[in-house]
Amino acid sequence: MTLENPSLPNIWRQLLSVLGDLRLAIVLLLAIAVFSISGTVIEQGQSLAFYQSNYPEDPALFGFLSWKVLLTLELDHVYRTWWFLSILILFGSSLTACTFTRQFPALKAARRWTFYKEPRQFQKLALSAELETGNLNSLTTLLEKRRYKVFQEGDTLYARKGIIGRIGPIVVHASMLMILAGSIWGALTGFMAQEMVASGNTFQIKNIIDAGPLATPKMLKDWSVRVNRFWIDYTPEGGIDQFYSDLSVVDQAGKDVDQQTIYVNKPLRYRGVTIYQTDWGIAAVRVRLNNSPIFQIPMAQLDTQGKGRLWGTWIPTKPDMSQGASVLARDLQGTLLVYDAAGKLVSTVRPGMATQVNGVTLKVDDVIGSTGLQIKADPGIPLVYTGFGLLMLGVIMSYVSHSQIWALQKGDHFYVGGRTNRAQVAFEREVIEMLDQLSDQTPLPEVLPIAADSLVSQN
Q: Would the pTM of this model clear 0.70, i.e. be above it?
């Protein structure tokens, strides 16, 4: 014997009522907006040293936002936190509940036609009139010209148009659910990486700094990227105009499968992975000492205390490395500063030029630049974009007015009335125009007092 709990349906209905409450949806939407703004303002997925440097404890930003608070609240990866995803899921549940408890019933009621068989029923409508002339056939003709769908039964008539306006809110809710699903899926399966690669080098994406719990970066092992060349265009004043990276995607057999030149706002996309041009640097300098072979020495970025970017290296001028020269560079325009062991500026050189330092001829062959790449994968983006497209369509559909008209032929009297969910003034003009065409009397048929009061209250 099975005992059923009669309170369960009531609990279920109460839960749906709470979830479908517009006030709850507004609160959740505001929370999503606030945390999304925080995720935009606060840099996401950076290192601990970055947050300690930019969000110190003394003085803390706004008096409370230090790096400890930021990391404790997980504001360094807002979009992947359990609480942000929970808000998205709760908001999606609210939209779903509202759709099934309000929008679908409203659509079902709008599709169901009913006939008014008593004159008193017309008095409850927003606009109604009683004529001494007119008939259903004439009204049907006028309604069909205005794209109404007409239903007639005996001496009664019902007509409607704009049912798509009732479908629009459902499409809006469905599109928002699609956007939420895409956002959640992207947060769970997406990842972000950063690479600094010198010109001519080939790399596999490994330096992943942020990834969702379901991310599958194993797919990156099937291919690699080669930096064919990196260069910078400078303005006449010496400032950076744009920097470029010529990249090739290479499969496991070493064959090029794609090749593109990327720059800021023009990334490379391959197999759901997007590679952006975000930074640059100086990787190495190629030099020759006297008649020695050309050798390449790496350069490192120096700490200038925020006074610009500067790279430097030390080049030995004796085999036992007892003496050497320091070389500094600030950009890829080719000008390098050469200092001797005493720290004295010896010369400024460009690629192809030579200078004497510590009794040795130092010739600079080339300066090797490195490109800073940001790599992102977000499998939820197609779903989000599709959702936004449907959202715009649903909003347009929602602006279509759903208008209804009833008519009753009873003896020598002809009753007509109607209502609409929006564009009340336009609907009123349309109805009065049809009444004018139905009636041979002038002035126009008088609107019933109750209907007139209703119109005033609505306008």
A: yes
Query: Quick check: 425 and 456 in contact, CB under 8 A?
Result: no
Alpha helices in 190-239 (DSSP H): none
Of 328, 354, 370, the one marking the end of a domain is 370
Return d(Cα 411, Cα 413) in angstroms, integer. 5
Which CATH number fits the domain that encloses residue 130?
A: 3.30.310.50
Examine the domain organization and report whether 410 and 427 are in the same domain. yes
Contacts of 256 (CB under 8 A, 6+ apart): 226, 248, 249, 250
- Burial string for 27-63 (b: 16+ CB within 10 Å, else e) reads ebeebbeebeebbeebebbbeeeebeeebeeeeeeee
CA 149 to chain centre: 40
Q: For the segment 190-238, what is each residue's pLDDT rounded down to a tens digit?
A: 888 889 999 889 998 888 888 888 887 666 778 899 999 998 888 887 7
**Backbone conformation region of residue 238, classed left if phi is above 0, alpha if psi is from -120 to 50, else beta:** left
Beta-carbon contacts of 405 under 8 Å, excluding residues fewer than 6 positions away, are: 143, 148, 157, 158, 159, 160, 416, 417, 418, 431
| Of 453, 397, 446, 440, the residue nearest 422 (C-alpha) | 397
Residue 441, Cβ neighbours under 10 Å: how many? Answer: 12
Containing structural domain, residue 450: 113-162+401-458
Q: pLDDT digits over 330-386, tens only?
A: 877 768 888 887 788 888 888 888 888 888 888 888 888 899 999 998 899 999 999
Same-domain check for residues 149 and 65: no
Rounded CA-CA distance 129/126 in Å is: 10
For residue 189, being part of any structural domain is answered with: no
Give the CA radius of gyration of the chain: 36
The whole-angstrom separation of Cα 446 and Cα 432 is 10
What's the number of domains the chain is made of? 3
CA angle 21, 22, 23 (to 5 degrees): 90
Q: How many Cβ atoms sit within 10 Å of the Cβ of residue 202?
A: 13
Place of tokens 């200038």: 304
Round to whole Å and give the CA distance between 324 and 347: 14
Distance, in Å, from the CA atom of 309 to the CA atom of 301, rounded to the nearest integer, reads 7
Q: Are residues 95 and 137 in the same domain?
A: no
Residues 6+ apart with CB under 8 A from 215: 188, 189, 190, 191, 377
The dihedral built from the CA positions of residue 318, 319, 322 and 327, taken in this order, carries a sign that is positive
Q: Helix, strand or coil for residue 369?
A: strand
Q: Which two tokens stand for residue 163?
A: 């049912």
Residues 153 and 85 in one domain: no
Residues 57 and 125 in one domain: no
